[in-house]
Design brief:
This protein is mainly α. The chain has 9 helices and no strands.
């Protein structure tokens, strides 16, 4: 029994780490694509991922470190945890677009987010509402069918489990990129407001 639990825990941990690495890479590539669009540069899927070369592992480590720190703060206390989450919400764009390390990314994020906590919070709130709406539209019919056929809540048939996984995947594909695009735009908007990035870029051009 102990051996099975250990194997189950190890498998879950490996799958969770693989999922976080995959999400980190896809999010970073999305930010590169948004950045190139913002700067009027040519954009392609290959080019977005190529912009991460030699930095993939570093960005994955930064992403995982941020996730664990924010999750720990949320577990300690919800309100301070949300504050920390918002404060570090631009850390990943800083890490991706400025090639910064973890500490500098967190410090830069705190500076850029200052005075914009409400805007960032509303972005995350809209993301949660949109994600929940799509999941409800996909999941509710499945549960209704399962209840009508007498297979739920007494049990969880295989087709229902598969349907829930597919629905979750569809929701992630549809809504997931939106939050990264929005956060990337907030990053550039903050730099324009606080650092005159638009003028700096025009002078560079």
């Amino acid at each position: 029994q102990v051996g099975r639990l250990a194997i189950s825990f190890a498998t879950t941990l490996v799958l969770a780490m693989a999922w976080m690495f995959t999400m980190a890479i896809s999010q970073a590539a999305t930010m590169v694509a948004v950045s190139r669009l913002h700067l009027n540069q040519p954009v392609s899927i290959g080019g977005a991922f190529a912009g991460l070369k030699h930095r993939i592992f570093k960005l994955c480590v930064i992403t995982i470190a941020l996730v664990f720190q924010i999750a720990f703060c949320l577990l300690l206390c919800i309100a301070p945890g949300i504050y920390v989450w918002l404060r570090w919400s631009l850390a990943l764009p800083v890490a991706v677009l400025e090639d910064a390390g973890l500490r500098r990314s967190m410090a830069r994020s705190a500076t850029l987010v200052e005075g914009q906590y409400g805007r960032v919070f509303m972005i995350y709130l809209l993301y949660v509402l949109l994600s929940g709406s799509i999941q409800s539209a996909l999941f509710v019919p499945l549960f209704i069918i399962a209840i009508v056929t007498g297979q739920f809540p007494g049990g969880s048939p295989l087709w229902l489990q598969i349907g829930l996984e597919v629905g979750g995947f569809i929701t992630t594909c549809l809504v997931g990129p939106l939050i990264m695009i929005a956060i990337s735009l907030v990053y550039y908007d903050s730099r324009v407001r606080k650092e005159g990035f638009d003028l700096e870029h025009m002078l560079a051009q």
